[in-house]
Amino acid sequence: MKKLQQLIIAGTLVLITACSATPKQSLYDEIGGRETLDHAMRLAVNRIYNDAQIGHFFKGVPKRHIHKELTDQFCNLIGGPCEYTGKTMVESHKDLNITDSDFYILVEYVQGAMRDVGITYEQENRILRYIAPLKSEIVYL
Length: 141
Ligand code: HEM
Hints:
- This protein is mostly helical and 141 residues long.
- Helix content is 64%, strand content 0%.
- The protein has a single domain (25-137), classed as Orthogonal Bundle (Globin-like).
- Helix 3 (33-50) crosses helix 4 and helix 3 packs across helix 6.
- Protoporphyrin IX containing FE is lined by residues 54, 57-58, 61, 66, 69-70, 73, 86-87, 92-93, 96, 98, 102-103, 106-107, 131, 134, 138.
């Protein structure tokens, strides 16, 4: 009986070790990594630049630049292997007088693009949870 107990304990320990050794997949990996994010941001940025209300904010700002910075930032926020080396949110948005409405228009483009590249509704919501707190660093500065 003692032997059986020892066997069960040993087996349980092996299982626990195996589970903790398996790295948990990040949200970044779950959605398909850089390729998915890159594609979503490309769609979103194109739509943002063409928007009648918020497009003007980006006059003179290279699309390529915003695309890269947004992709790096989102990648970093959702557990990807990227470093965000751009300006802080306050630095890049202060004095632009961005309103609540401007903010939600941009976020809706990002949401729409995420859906278009196959990110699920549930994954989209998890991504938005990382983005929402940035609002106070972007709006009415
Ligand atoms: C979730 C919301 C947002 C995120 C995550 C975000 C993120 C970023 C990032 C990463 C940059 C690049 C910073 C750099 O150049 O190093 C940037 C720049 C910029 N963002 Fe946003 N942004 C958001 C909302 C907005 C909104 C709502 C507007 C205007 C309607 C806006 C307008 C701009 C402009 C004009 C720049 C370029 C600033 C410059 O180079 O002088 N952003 N943003």
